[in-house]
Amino acid sequence: MREGPDDRPRATRRQRGITRQAHRLSVAVPSRRLSTTAAFWSVAVFLVLMLAASGVPSPLYRVYQEEFGFSSGVLTAVFGIYAFALLASLLVVGGLSDHVGRRPVLIAAFVLEAASMALFLFADGVGWLLAARVVQGLATGALTSALGAALLDLQHRDRPLGAFINSASPGLGLSIGAVGAGLLVQFVPSPTDWVFGVLTGVFLLAAVGTYLVPESSPRLPGALASLRPQVHVPPANRRAFIVTLPLLIACWAVGGLYLSLGPSLVADVFGIDNHLVGGLLILGMQGTGVVGSLAVRTSAPDRALLVGGLSFTVGMAGTVAAVQAGSLVLLFAAGVMTGFGFGAGFLGAVALITAGVAPGHRAGLLASIFVVGYLAFSVPAIAAGIAAGSFGLTRTTEVYSVAVMVLALLAVVALVRSRRRPIAQPAPHRPGVDPEVTTPVRAA
Known about the structure:
This protein has 14 helices and no strands. The chain has helices at residues 10-27, 36-55, 57-68, 72-93, 97-100, 102-121, 126-154, 162-187, 191-209, 238-268, 275-295, 301-325, 328-354, 362-419. Helix 12 packs antiparallel against helix 13 (328-354).
């Protein structure tokens, strides 16, 4: 006797429902939406824009510090509370777009980002700054995972650029934001009004523009369950995650040091009280991260990791030498080398970790990567700000640099050992083969 439709396993019916929904997404994109190629590059621009906004406050910290009269410890607290809010957002809503779709999460997060810019615009004390950074952190956490996953959804099958853009965009975005804000601080009266007034409008426009981006993810069941704070790495991706972990921590920890205390280091240790120079130091480190990503874009992920880890170690050794010698030129050169290592290593890590991950797990996996990154970005930087008050910026920078060098070398050793037993990567997802999830849109 043949089975009736109600006799089929419930999981099978659910999977077929997801497949049908994904098929509808792939063949029935409304004409008012962007093409997949145009949507991919629009999402890439949105990602860089959001990261640029997260870098804008760095050169302005000293402006606020002088205006409101708070210490270096309070400065790093303002910096750190943003990262903690971002982490909370990643842990709670990092995987939400896998369940409700990318577009609803993006639209809500862009509106929240605009609200944070408005809080900065009207800030008249430390309390306002803390509130602005909390709201910005919540918005950035939601945007980071949803935009990153959308890039993986929309990338061309034959030219997969999602991992490259996910790894290169932090350096590019943070550099644009920091240098742009530094220029305004140096040459424009009332720079905070200009920066945050414009960005408030830009993010409201981004929320409206997101309506033109086609939905790129099937809506998996379990949206409410996904809101439980968690870090989820699919079993097939865990070994790669562990191998790359020390380098992820090291790279993001240095990014936090430069963005929170870099301008203060230039002013207090090297005696150059110029906001533009502080912004250029951030550019020297973050901007060359894009160059590092480009240089190894066609390399195997493990090779990119090896190049990145070694370059990063050399750069941090140069940072120690620069601080000891009091050489600003050497500090910039070391920052460039460190940034190159960051870009190469982070690209290798993202490519290795996300290899073959299915669409329904992309946002959650990227959220896990960035949870590690932003923890390393915030906690050590806050500790450095506190330590600088007791031991001085010079000694704090030296100890900090040696610690991240050790982490980077641990990653290199782990990578060399893993090469003897290659990391098994999950097979690339193919629509119609994997019953759990289906590629939701056609390749560009």
